[in-house]
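Predict the 3D structure for this chain.
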Amino acid sequence: MRKEPSALAMEGGAHEFDGSAFKECFSLSWRNPYVLRLAFSAGIGGLLFGYDTGACVLLPSYLPASLF
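Done. Predicted structure below.
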């Protein structure tokens, strides 16, 4: 039987998914609102940074050359 490449790359092979660790981590984040606020603000900050970077890169192409 041929194994998947990802299973061969993992030490010990592929394991079955156990949802209890995910549920524990998710419930812990709801009990600690600081983590949620931090993750939300980091996500919004990343989106705004990416938007601003794209706008600053494209802006010179719309400005007249006399401004440079």
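The CA atoms of residues 42 and 51 lie 14 Å apart.
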